[in-house]
Design a protein that fits this description.
Thermophilic metalloprotease-like; 2 domains; 5-stranded parallel beta sheet; 11 helices
Length: 372
């Protein structure tokens, strides 16, 4: 029996997130999920007059393909997947991962080769820049366990955060977008953190369900060589199958010159992927009112109310500081009091303290204001 909440979510994905038009093609790439929301997405695409293409994947199979993959294999895979991506106008990435650590033992050199030959050209370059795309998860028992919730409790949480009133959220973001556009100097302060950089002239992108579900952030990029100081992240991060924690980076003129964290060896390997991996491609403030705690899932964690993320790797073309990399690693710092607090300053003005916006025009993004 289908969950009726999926029909509502499919409407958000097809009509709000991807804005699918009659006659357009959309690729639905589903990981570890062959039913559920997949059915509702296909039905909604047909109702919209679109052309659905479905690609079902298994992360366990992907592990086998990556672990012993050759350069010839990855190049052929990239050629096929890029051709497919170039034939559609929209993309939905649906992750229903049964084991979030499935790729954790893929050798580092194979993962780097896959990222370079497949992930970079197909997704970071083409899909991100040339399709209307959205990425979302699908609730299951593994995700509930990851979040420390019962399966039923997590499902209720999932549908609540994913179907937030994105129209209202879009209105509330406008003043923040305007402030970020006119800001030059940003300072981040908190336990183990004192970081300064410029965002002058960078694009600013309000996010209200167009690219990610759940959503609730506004991002830009630092001027590439302007970053100086130290940032200490307090949310664990699962990236390419490995969980990282207790991360701290020190920057000099935009480059990470010191990096500590667990596991240190894997961290060093990741930052050695290319030169762009030691520079930052995104700075963003998160404010989804229903997401309060990390669950080692970037799509949720980077939207945590009172959080920010500062991202080593590739910059988006719509907020481009010129940094190019095979990675894009959203690392989260939560600044609410229970996580140690912290401050965000724009051009010498305190705009957020302990995770709460303290200037009048931004108060509409605080959780108690947005949910009332």
């Amino acid at each position: 029996m289908r969950d009726p909440r999926n029909a509502r979510l499919a409407q958000v994905v097809i009509h709000h997130s991807t804005r699918l038009q009659p006659g357009e093609a959309i690729l639905i790439e589903s990981f570890d999920l062959a039913d559920g929301l997949v059915f509702d997405l296909v039905d909604e695409v047909h109702r919209a007059g679109g052309i659905p293409l479905v690609y079902l994947r298994s992360n366990a199979v992907n592990r086998g393909l990556m672990a012993a993959g050759s350069e010839a294999q990855f190049r052929l895979q990239a050629e096929i997947e890029l051709h497919q991506m170039q034939k559609v106008q929209a993309y939905v990435g649906l992750r229903g991962s049964n084991n979030i650590s499935e790729l954790s033992d893929v050798p580092g050199d194979r993962m780097a080769l896959y990222t370079k030959l497949v992930q970079q050209p197909v997704h970071l370059d083409y899909r991100v820049n040339h399709t209307r795309w959205v990425v979302l998860r699908y609730p299951n028992a593994a995700m509930a366990q990851q979040a420390g919730m019962s399966t039923e409790q997590f499902e209720d949480f999932y549908y609540r955060v994913c179907t937030v009133d994105y129209g209202k959220l879009a209105e509330a973001i406008v003043p923040l977008e305007q402030r970020m556009r006119r800001t030059d100097q940003v300072r981040l302060v908190g336990p183990g953190t004192d970081l300064r950089f410029s965002i002058k002239g960078m694009g600013v992108v309000p996010c209200e369900g167009r690219r990610n579900i759940p959503d609730g952030e506004c991002f830009t990029a630092p001027v590439r060589d302007s970053v100086n100081g130290t940032i200490s992240y307090n949310a664990p991060s699962l990236y390419l199958g490995t969980t990282y924690d207790h991360l701290s980076f020190t920057f000099e003129n935009g480059r990470i010159v010191k990096a500590t964290g667990d596991p240190q060896e894997r961290l060093d390997q990741l930052l050695a992927t290319d030169e762009g991996a030691r520079h930052v491609g995104e700075f963003s403030l998160g404010f989804n009112p229903h997401i309060l705690h990390p669950m080692k899932d970037t799509l949720f964690d980077e939207k945590i109310a009172g959080s920010l993320h500062f991202t080593p790797g590739q910059a988006y073309s719509i907020a481009d500081n010129g940094n190019r990399s095979q990675i894009h690693w959203d690392l989260v710092l939560i600044q609410r009091p229970e996580y140690g607090g912290g401050e965000v300053w724009f051009d010498g003005e305190l705009v957020r303290k302990d995770g709460r916006f303290v200037v009048k025009d931004l108060e509409g993004l605080n959780p108690d204001r947005f949910t009332t």
